[in-house]
Every structure is written in C-alpha cells, then in structure tokens.
Amino acid sequence: MFNIINKTAIFIISLLVIAVAVGSLGYYIWKENQSSSMPAKNVIIVSTTTSLYQIGVLDDLFNSFNNLTNMNISFNVLAKGSGEALRLLADGSACIGFVHAPSLELQYMNQGKIERLAIFGYNEFILVGPKSDPANVSQAPNVIEAFKRIYEAGERGDAKFVSRADLSGTNVRELQIWNLTKLNPDGKSWYLKSGQGMSQTLLMADNLNAYTLTDIGTYLKLAGQNKFNNLVILKKDPLYLINVYSMYLSKSSNCDNPNTWYIAYKFKDFLMDQGQQILETKYKGLVDPAKGSESMLQQAWETLASLG
Amino acid sequence: MEINLKNVWHSYDGSTFVLRNIDLLFRNSGVYLIVGPNGSGKTTLLKITSLIIKPSRGENIINGKSFWSLDERERENLRSNIIYVHDKPILVRGNVRHNLELGMKLKKKRDRTLIEYYIDRYKLRDLERKSANKLSAGQAKVITLIRALSLKPEVLILDEPFTFLDSQRSEMLIEDIEDIVEKEKGLVIIATHYMYKELKEISTQQIEIINGEIQRTQQ
Amino acid sequence: MVESIFSVTLRSLYISSAASFFAFISAVILSLIASRAEKKKADAILGIFEALVGIPTTAIGLLIYMLLFPGGPLGSLRILYTPLAIIIGEIFVALPIAYTTMFRHFQSLRGTMRELVLSLGVPEKHTSSILLRELSPVLVSSYLTSFSRAIGELGVALIAGGGIEGYTNVLTTAIAIQSSIGNYEYAIWLGLILIFMTIVLTLLLKFIGEYLIWK
C-alpha cells in the first residue's frame, strides 16, 4: 500500500514538475520564435515616471511611432519614480527616459550623464485633501500659503499630510514648496511618509483624510474609476505647480551607438510633431502638449530646477 | 582468502581506544566465533576485518598484501569478495524484492536463482512485494542475511545474526553457514551472544574479546 | 493595455522553474560534496547558507543589478532586464533554501549508506546514487520549497528584470506595478493565482511530509 502511494506520488509530482517546466519552456520558445519570425527587432530600454505609464500615453505614442515610421522597435518600459528612472538613465541601464523632476534632471545633466532632447508636455500638480478642508487651503492665495496652513493645522492636530518620500518628481516638488514656506514638517507626527507610488499614496490620503500633492493625471484617472470617497482638488497654482515632462537620452557608453541615437532622435522628432497632436486630441488635461508654450515651459523648468 | 590483523588499534575520537593490540589470523575456510560482552569492541573488530573501517593503527593483511596501502582498484577487487551483515539491518527505500536484489544490482550480476532459492527456503514469498519499512525486526534481519548469502561471498562476516531470528530460521542459517564452509570452502566470521550447540560444533576457533582486548582463543 | 494574466503566469512558471531547477541541482551537488567533508566544515557551510536564507530578495536584486548594469563588472554581457537576469538572481534566492532543507538529511544518511555499500562489497563510489534514491522524497519537497520561494519573490524580478510587459513581467512584478498605479483589481487576480499555486505546492509538501518520508 505504502509502496503504491510512494511510487504514484513521486511519479505524479515529477510529471507535474516536468510538465510545468516543459510547458512553460515550450511556450517561451514558441513566443520567441514568433517574435523572431518578424522583421529584425530593435529593442530599446525606456525608463519612465509611473504617471506617464499609468495614463497610458507612452504605449499609445510608441505604437503610433511604429505605425507611422514602419519601424518595428520594441520599447521595453521600466515604470519607476523619476528619481530611479533618472538613475537608470545615468547608469546606462535605460537609454531613453521620460521624467518630471527638473532639479534632479539638472543635477544629472551637470554631471554629464544625460542629455535633454525635449520638453514635450506638461500638466499640473494639485493639492488634494478631504472635502471638509480643515486647514482651509482652498481659500489660500497660493500654494505656499496653503502649505503653511496645513502645517499650522497639523500642529493643532486638525490635519494630516501624506508625502511620497521617494524622490519622485512629485515628491521633489513637494519638498521644494516646503522649502519655500521655510517650515520643516519632517519628523512631525501629522506628516506621514508613504514611500509608495502616486496611486497608493492618493488612496492612503483618501483613507486617512489627509492632504497630499499629486499630478493631475493620476488623480483624474483614479477619480474617473470612482476610487475616492472623500478626496477632492483643493488648490491649483499655475506658478509653482506646473509639472513639466521632458525626454532624455542617456550619455552612458552603453547607449552611445548610432542605432540608439537614431531611434532616440527619430522618436523625439515624432514626439514633437505628430506626437503633439496625439497629446492635444487624446490626452488634453492629462498631459498637455508643449507646442505653443515652449518659452513658458522652458522658463518654468529653469525656475523649478534652480529651486534645488 | 586469508585475513590477518596485525597489531590493530582503533579509536573513533582519537583518545579512547575501543580496540587494543589485536593480532588475529583468519585462515581460508572455517567458522570463527567472536564472543564477548556488549561494548567490548566486537562490532568494530568485525568492521575492520570486513574492510569497512580503516584501523587507527596496525595492518590488515589480505592474502599477504597490506590492504590499506593498496591502490583503489586493488582494494575494490579484494573488497568485493567480503560481505558484512550489520547487527541492525540496513534496508533501503522500496520493497523487499528490491532490497534482496540490491547487492546484485550494484554488482551488475544477472543470476537471480540463488535469491529465488533462499526466498523459498526462508518462506518469504508473501513478503516479496511488501515495503521495506513495514517489516518486523526479524523479517528485516532475515532479508539482510539472504541478501548477503545470495551473493555467494568468499568471506561472510555476520554481526549478531541470530538476534530477532526464530529458532527454525536460526537452524537454517547455521546449516547454510556450514554449507558455505564445507562446499564452497568459504570463511565465515560471526559475532554472537547465542551459543548454539550446532554452531560450536562447526566452529574452527572461538575468540573472546573483553574491553577491546583479546582474552583468549580456543580451538 | 495590460498583459494577459495567462502569459504572465506562464512566464512566471518558466522563469521560476528554471531558476529553482538550477538552484536545486547545485544544492544537490554541494550537499553531496559537503556531506563527505568534516562535520565542522560542513556545519560552517550550512551556517552560512542558513544566514543567506534571510537576506531580503531586494538586496539580492540590487546586487545582481550592480553586477549587470552597463558600467558593472558583467555589464558587457548585456543581460540586464532579460529573463536570464531574473533566473540568475532567483538562483541565489532559491539556492540557500534548497540547500538548508536537504543538507541535514544528506549528512545523517551518508554514513549509513556508505556502510551499506561497503558491506555488500561494492565500490564506495556507488554511495551517492543510493543516497539520492533514498532521499528522493526529501529532494522533491526541497525542490518544491525552492520553487515556491522563487515564484513568490519580488526584489530580483523587479530590479534585475524590470517588469517589462511582454518580456520580463512576472506575477510578482505585475502585482507590484499594477497596484502602484491603483489597478488593484488586476493585481488581486494575479495575487489569487499566486496564492492558489503556493497553496497547491504547500499541500503537496504536506503530503510528501506525511506519506513519503520514513526513517
């Protein structure tokens, strides 16, 4: 009896293991063959801030680019925070990057690690918080004043603030604004660090009745899916809360080859031409095209970069 | 085969010796009985004799050659003629049949007639397909004994072979031992507590060991 | 926009079965060698592997990244962000688990099996094959444990694999990325698949533990 169980069990388990291994290997080879039967494939690794990935705009742009140019380039997308996305560019782990953290971008540019190809789009950051608005930020004249009010309300125990604390573009901007208020919330009990992506941070703020700074794209995407109970837009500020998206090329030796450069510049040309129309028609309000606002955006970028 | 232990000492931990100054000669063909109380070093002596353990000091001379200074191939050749059966039976995963054939499988021998003969002789036909870990102590012991017998060794070394055996099977075993010595001119060395009359009658020599030293030998 | 759950699951199975297979083979070879070594040495090696079991997979992922990124010592291999990078990293994740779950059995049984082989007058080199056959249930359960560790880890897959859709995206990275963009529903489905597979594996382990291991 035992012997039968023993043998049958080992037999079945080995069968399972072999089936799984062979099956998935077979599938993988099939998949590889399928892709290699297509015309020679160029692979380029792209790092991007999570917000652009989430909005879905990059996939759309890549597909249109391939269709339009009759190229078959496979853009392998790494969705990260801007801090990590820039680090990957500097390392040469990714060759093209789409980010929104001007002060960090400037640092890496000054080190000669990356090169800016274009400012291609923008939207805005917004201050969101509970409907009841305990710190009364909606009545503040600008976002700096609004942050001061949150600080005071926080000290009174009336308000909370969730920070991403991950050196993402959004987090960098938030820290810049705290700098401008000359107040330091770090270490306060009402100042919570999520260490997570924008969506998770927004959901956290919603659950905790807290304020947080977000890019408008991510907020609208989630609001459109009815994910919030209590979180509303409370403050906009065109001067300090503009969110500028730029495209970068890594200057690492890994990306220093004609092929990568060709694709990068070709894509940049597309992005600044037909790409702008795609943004205009399909992503207005999520990511606005840079076309027509070039000098304003360049100026905003420089101001933001210099805020450190 | 002639096995000669010369001035053999053995220690497992490097400080206390379980065997001291052993000089023994096992001549070709015959039954040697080793007796002595528990813990006197019988098992260690048997394992050294059967070339499983290398003694800490002294020599083990097989057919005139010092075994442990031979090269690997010669050692394997000599060793293949010596079969040892443990006091506590060692069986492997699988059924009785597999365990009986284990030695033959490892030695790549084809002829299974002896196994069939012994299965019938010891009335084990019912157990053939039984899993080895479901056996009683006595059944396990018989199986390790048959496994050794069916290999037809020149030298057979048995550690307490009669423990767990009923009297009928003990008698059969003694007959089989007698056969090996009489018909095959083999050498059998047995450590035992049970001094059967029949065993005494066929024995060439009795060796008494106490506290790791040979007390006396008796023809 | 998001990849089908089916292909993510298959890719996960392929990557983690490859990783756990290589980890398992190395663990068996190491165990065979170490079980012949002195007990003190063998215990020291085991101690090191026991300590390695607890290392966060993220740390292993970073280590693999530092080795494989273009400026790293092995950067010229160009395998960062490929399934191979994940497999290599996961070998290091699975190896300590495979080794620690099997080695004690090798150590405790080798002596007995060696004596059995010698007592039958068979060359000592046959010990290993007898030992492996004897330990087969242990080996099966050890393989399954390292497989479930590999399929459930996130750090290596995210940092060395990148979670690229259609290429290196596996169950855990898909869960992480999809939940980071608030797509909890999709992430939950993947999570359920992962839970289902680990439960099936655990049941198999229990079954093996109860019915197959005897001494």
Overview of this protein structure:
The complex is a heterotrimer of chains A (308), B (219) and C (215). By secondary structure, chain A is α/β, with parallel strands linked by helices. Chain A contains 12 helices and 10 strands. Chain A has 2 domains: 145 residues, Periplasmic binding protein-like II (D-Maltodextrin-Binding Protein, domain 2), CATH 3.40.190; 111 residues, Periplasmic binding protein-like II (D-Maltodextrin-Binding Protein, domain 2, 3-Layer(aba) Sandwich), CATH 3.40.190. In chain A, strands 1, 2, 3, 4, 7, 8, 9 and 10 form an 8-stranded mixed beta sheet that branches. In chain A, helix 7 links the parallel strand 5 and strand 6. The radius of gyration of chain A is 23 Å and the shape is globular. The N and C termini of chain A lie far apart (75 Å). Chain B has 219 residues and is α/β, with parallel strands linked by helices. In chain B, the strands form 2 sheets. A 6-stranded mixed beta sheet of chain B has the order 6-7-8-3-9-10, sandwiched between helices. In chain B, a hairpin with a 2-residue loop joins strand 4 and strand 5. The model of chain B has no long low-confidence stretch (mean pLDDT 91). Chain B has 7 helices and 10 strands. Chain B has a single domain, classed as Rossmann fold (3-Layer(aba) Sandwich), CATH 3.40.50. Chain B starts with a strand and ends with a strand. By secondary structure, chain C is mostly helical. Chain C has one domain: MetI-like (MetI-like fold). Chain C is globular. The model of chain C has no long low-confidence stretch (mean pLDDT 90). Classes of the chains: A alpha/beta (308), B alpha/beta (219), C mainly alpha (215). Chains in contact: A-B, A-C, B-C.
Search tags:
heterotrimer; B: alpha/beta; Rossmann fold; 6-stranded mixed beta sheet; 26% strand; C: 215 residues; mainly alpha; MetI-like fold; globular
Short description:
With 219 residues, chain B is an alpha/beta fold. Chain B has helices at 42-49, 72-79, 96-107, 113-121, 137-149, 167-183, 197-202, and strands at 3-10, 19-26, 30-35, 57-62, 65-66, 82-85, 155-159, 187-191, 205-210, 213-218.
Total DSSP helices of chain C: 9
CATH homology group of chain C: MetI-like
Do you know the CATH architecture of chain C? Answer: Orthogonal Bundle
Question: How widely separated are the two ends of chain B?
Answer: 20 Å
Please tally the β strands of chain B and state the result. Answer: 10
